[in-house]
Design brief:
It is built from one helix and seven strands; from the N terminus they run H-E-E-E-E-E-E-E. By secondary structure, the chain is an alpha+beta fold.
């Protein structure tokens, strides 16, 4: 048994000695002060369409509602407070419930901001009551209430899946 270990240890030791012997003959590159180091380029992360983290216009919630509910968010109006104007995005959940969020337009990073209407979250899975023009809403991240202006939408659509 001891003989097997001795053979394995001597084989590993001789392999290391041979490796170091041949490694000694390899040329060592000389780097001077004038040598320019070539750094490989950093791979660019491709922004995919619909990326929730990188695209501020992709809605924060993705759920599969029944077939007759419009699942896409669209800009339904604006929120204003003094000179500050934020776009308001919304989608209808069911007949009388909506989901809303706003986008900050400060700096280079546009952030999706949750909205509270009458103390209730407008981004929750149950939605909230519809916002009408001149309603006041609270936008997370801002200290004061904002006034809503809702765009007029006179487009009627027919969905044969309802009847």
């Amino acid at each position: 048994m001891l003989k097997k270990y001795w053979i394995a240890i001597s084989l590993a030791f001789s392999t290391i000695i041979l490796y170091l012997f041949f490694l000694r003959d390899l040329p060592i590159p000389q780097i001077s002060a004038n040598t320019i180091l070539q750094i490989p380029p950093i791979p660019v992360v491709r922004e995919e369409k619909g990326d929730v983290l990188r695209d501020p216009y992709v809605p924060p919630l993705v759920r599969t509602p029944p077939l007759f509910i419009q699942t896409d968010y669209s800009q339904v109006g604006i929120l204003s407070q003094g000179e500050l104007i934020l776009p308001l995005f919304g989608r209808r959940m069911r007949r009388d419930k909506w989901q809303y969020y706003a986008i900050s337009n400060t700096g280079t990073l546009n952030t999706k901001l949750p909205i509270r209407i009458n103390g209730k979250s407008a981004t929750g899975e149950h939605g909230c009551d519809p916002i009408v023009s001149n309603d006041t809403v609270f936008v997370e991240g801002y200290k004061e209430m904002m006034s809503a202006t809702i765009y007029e939408n006179n487009q009627f659509s027919y969905n044969p899946g309802i009847f």
